[in-house]
Design goal:
By secondary structure, the protein is α+β, with helices and mostly antiparallel strands. It folds into two domains: about 35 residues; about 130 residues, Pleckstrin-homology domain (PH domain)/Phosphotyrosine-binding domain (PTB) (PH-domain like), CATH 2.30.29. About 30% of the residues lie in helices and about 40% in strands. It contains four helices and eight strands, in the order ααβββββαββαβ. The chain is globular and about 70 Å long.
């Protein structure tokens, strides 16, 4: 208590007051700069599922990377692990966002390890953006997310785009 009283009393002195003001200004500058540095949110452990091309039986392999919600560009982007941009969607072009949590039985584990694995299910998390391209054609961007950050990505999508994320969870 005495230390607090001494600090408050010391602020009344001109040199200490200048020092306190300069510290406050330095802290506010740091906060302003970190706000600029973190103007976009980046989430790793995400796979982009490319759309199927007509005439092919199987779609292309998933691309590992990260999703970025860029506040300055007002766009959601997917970049591969090398940092190359794969898809970029402006927020105003997004029509809807769907979060899905699906489950399926663990057949391989049940066969290889124990039949008790039949009673447990793996869960996969997907986020689908429905949007229109420059020509007005309807498109989809589907992301497979890790369970550790799936809810964070869905919540960031809702907060950044201003759209309500529809949620479907399979039991």
């Amino acid at each position: 208590m005495r230390k607090l009283a001494r600090f408050v009393f010391a602020l009344g002195r001109p040199a200490s007051l200048r020092r306190a003001i300069s510290v406050c200004l330095a802290l506010s500058m740091c906060l302003a700069l970190t706000g600029q540095l973190f103007a976009s949110e980046l989430f790793g452990k995400v796979e982009y599922l490319p759309p199927k091309v007509e005439g092919q039986k199987h779609g292309a392999d998933p691309i590992k990377g990260h999703v970025i919600f860029d506040t300055e560009k007002k766009a959601v982007e997917f970049q591969n692990e090398k940092g190359e941009q794969i898809v970029s969607i402006p927020y105003d072009k997004i029509k809807s966002i769907l979060y899905e949590k699906t489950s399926r039985p663990r057949y391989a584990e049940a066969i290889l390890l124990s039949p008790f694995f039949l009673f447990s299910k793996t869960k996969k998390h997907f986020l689908t953006f429905q949007y229109t391209d420059e020509n007005g054609n309807g498109k989809f961007m589907m992301l497979h997310m890790d369970k550790s950050n799936a809810m964070d990505i869905a919540n960031a999508a809702e907060a950044e785009t201003g759209l309500k994320v529809s949620r479907e969870e399979e039991k």
